[in-house]
Specification:
Distance between the termini of chain B: 27 Å
Structural class of chain A: mainly beta
Number of strands of chain A: 19
Strand order of the largest sheet of chain A: 2-1-5-7-9-11-13-15-17-19
Shape of chain A: globular
CATH architecture of chain B: 3-Layer(aba) Sandwich
Helix content of chain B: 25-40%
Number of helices of chain A: 5
CATH superfamily of chain B: P-loop containing nucleotide triphosphate hydrolases
Largest sheet of chain A: 10 strands, mixed
Strand content of chain A: 35-45%
Number of domains of chain A: 1
Largest sheet of chain B: 6 strands, mixed
Order of helices and strands of chain B: EEEHEEHEHHHEHEEEHH
Number of strands of chain B: 10
Number of helices of chain B: 8
Distance between the termini of chain A: 40 Å
Helix content of chain A: 10-25%
Radius of gyration of chain A: 20 Å
Strand content of chain B: 25-35%
Structural class of chain B: alpha/beta
Order of helices and strands of chain A: HEEEHEEEEEEEEEEEEEEEEHHH
Oligomer: heterodimer
């Protein structure tokens, strides 16, 4: 049961529903009675760029599930992209982490793969335009020792679309990837993105997702954490207004000893919007000396706005340092008065305090270029009245 | 400058100020002294427009303009400044950013041009130096992790940069050692001028050794029950508030 199979089989009953514990707050089956028809390729190509314009060595843009921009794999550069237009994917050699999946699932016509040969930055854009349904699958390969950046955006322009994405990330030993995601979907769109992260020992994966919601927006990250000095940072921000809904779900499985996970998610909800945070960290037996910290903090700025949070730690190992913190509250009225007493009018004071609130997450982004894009993007949303 | 007439204020249904009248002309420094629970902080909050303070009767005007109908930021734009007894911590906002945002908001409200970043930094550096504040501290989130004395000094720094016309100091001496008290008092005294007035709210006489008031008022049970010159503060120090508590 998945969004992908619902789209491919035109079968709404395959959509996840509130009966699935992990989907109880993002019930798609109750929402979608009829799967929209398959999306056509947009009439005009999507212009190059997106929110991270100018920051990448290459750009891969998938619009309505169709390839829009992709670099020629023969042009030398630190990052190569192989697409399903390539006759026979050279990357699916035996032993390649995705080969067994390809064999199991059959050749997936919608798959594209971003391979970092050297340190570099890739832009990955998912554009939805129109009211159809579409899905796409992207693999990201970061070999041992390579340091890479993935700047990912969801850009919804349509109305009533249903989009589903699967991103599979493989980091070799000692590899590093920072993934920064700006999820800017249309108010009436439904978008589900699932990332599966596979780490080797000594690898470092850092992620920051900033989301403005949609009719339903779910961004799920699942990490297989091997321990062995591998480091993981999973951060998120959701800024919601109107009737928007965003669901940030993470599942981390610590399978070996000596792994680190640091997680900080913050949200601001206004009007009748709804934010969902589900964070689960599982520490398997033997995953000793795991250090896992999870925090989620939300501000509710509207009487009819809602936040649902489910932080979970499941620990089966001894000798671990694990913690979680979760707070949901209103803007500090005393701080607001203090700022106004100094002459800052109420809307400005609210924006200042909420920007500062989420600034703690934004400041953790390593790549300065992306950090400033995110800061600006978030600031623009918070200053809207 | 400030005229308060027969002010009645209730907090959570309980009347705290019960007909307070006060006149602070430009150029003067007035001290309000009184026992705990007399309504000293209520007075400072109602003059600055904090929520939860219901004015049930009376008026407060600044240069003839009704203060009580203005929003807190509008009062600030008219020049009203409160140095808080317990300055707030503002996580995530560097002190410099906060003060510059406030200064530019005040200037916009008055139809003046905003200050540029270099101009502001120069001003902040100069004022910080005179208050013996390490400039690096201004890059940290406002008041977060600051000691009581550092927080009070940050209040005076903001005052020095924002240049208000009517200053209310609410228990500014609390939490200060004698050296910090002198620095703070010097900062306050530097702002004394014929165009400005100050209301110094304090429980103890000590602060008034450094910030010399023109008039001293005793606030007890929501009313001014006695007024006099600086000698009144000394008398209170000697004899305590008992006789005024009975008078009220």
């Amino acid at each position: 049961m998945s969004v992908a199979s619902a789209i491919r089989a035109d079968d709404p009953s395959a959509l996840p529903s509130r009966r699935d514990e992990d989907w109880r707050w993002t019930d798609l089956r109750g929402l979608i009675r009829v799967v929209p028809p398959p999306s056509a390729r947009p009439e005009r190509p999507v212009p190059e760029g997106g929110p991270f314009k100018g920051l990448g060595d290459i750009e891969l843009t998938i619009a309505n599930g169709h390839l829009n921009w992709w670099p020629d794999p023969d042009i030398p550069g630190p990052v190569r992209v192989h697409t399903h237009d390539a006759p026979e994917a050279p990357f699916l050699t035996a032993g390649h982490p995705m080969a067994s999946r390809a064999a199991r699932n059959g050749r997936d016509p919608r798959i594209s793969i971003i391979s970092f040969d050297k340190d570099g930055t890739a832009l990955l854009r998912f554009v939805s335009d129109g009211g159809g349904s579409h899905d796409a699958r992207v693999g990201v390969m970061v070999p041992a020792g390579v340091r890479a950046k993935l700047l990912e955006s969801y850009e919804g322009r349509g109305d009533g679309y249903l989009a589903n994405y699967l991103i599979e990330v493989f980091l070799g030993e000692g590899a590093e990837l920072e993934r920064v995601v700006v999820a800017d979907e249309a108010a009436e769109g439904v978008s589900v993105s699932t990332a599966e992260i596979h780490l080797k020992h000594g690898a470092s994966f850092a992620q920051t997702v900033v989301a403005s919601g949609a009719r339903r927006q779910r961004i799920e990250t699942r990490v297989a954490h091997p321990g062995g000095g591998a480091k993981l940072r999973l951060d998120g921000v959701y800024l919601l207004e109107g009737k928007r809904h965003a669901d940030l779900t993470t599942v981390v499985e610590h399978k070996g000893a000596d792994g680190v996970t640091a997680q900080l998610t913050k949200g601001v909800v206004r009007d009748q919007s709804r934010g969902v945070f589900q964070g689960r960290i599982v520490v398997a037996q033997g995953a000793d000396r795991t250090d896992a910290r999870m925090e989620h903090h939300a501000l509710i700025l509207g009487d009819r706005a809602e936040v649902d949070a489910k932080p979970e730690l499941e620990i089966y190992a001894d000798d671990v340092a694990c913690s979680h913190g979760n707070t949901i509250g209103a803007l500090d009225q005393d701080a607001l008065f203090y700022a106004r007493q100094r002459g800052i009018p109420e809307p400005g004071a609210r924006a200042l305090l909420t920007e500062a609130f989420i600034g703690e997450v934004v400041d953790r982004i390593w790549f300065e270029g992306a950090r400033e894009v995110v800061r600006q993007w978030a600031g623009d949303r918070l200053r809207r009245t | 400058m400030l005229t308060v007439s027969n002010l009645h204020v209730a907090v959570g249904g309980a009347e705290i100020l019960k007909g307070l009248s006060l006149d602070v002309p430009a150029g003067e420094v007035h001290a309000i002294m009184g026992p705990n629970g007399a309504g000293k902080s209520t007075l400072s909050y109602v003059l600055t427009g904090r929520e939860g303070y219901a004015v049930t009767a009376g008026s407060a005007t600044l240069d003839g303009e009704d203060l009580l109908s203005l929003a807190p930021d509008e009062r600030a734009a008219r020049g009203v400044f409160l140095s808080f007894q317990y300055p707030l911590e503002i996580p995530g906002v560097p002190a410099l950013t906060f003060i510059r945002t406030a200064l530019n908001a005040l200037r916009r409200a008055r139809g003046e041009a905003e200050v540029s970043a270099p101009e502001f930094l120069k001003l902040a550096r100069e004022k910080a130096k005179s208050l013996k504040i390490d400039f690096e501290m201004l890059k940290r989130p406002l008041n977060v992790g600051f000691s009581g004395g550092e927080k009070k000094r940050m209040e005076i720094l903001q005052m020095a940069i924002l240049q208000p016309r009517f200053l209310i100091l609410d228990e500014t001496d609390s939490g200060l050692d004698i050296d910090a008290l002198k620095i703070v008092a010097d900062g306050v005294n530097a702002l004394r001028s014929p165009e400005r007035a100050m209301l110094v709210i304090t429980h103890y006489q000590r602060l008034l050794d450094y910030i010399r008031p023109d008039r001293v008022h005793v606030l007890s049970a929501g009313r001014i029950v006695a007024s006099g010159g600086p000698e009144l503060a000394l008398e209170l120090e000697r004899e305590g508030y008992d006789k005024y508590a009975r008078a009220a």
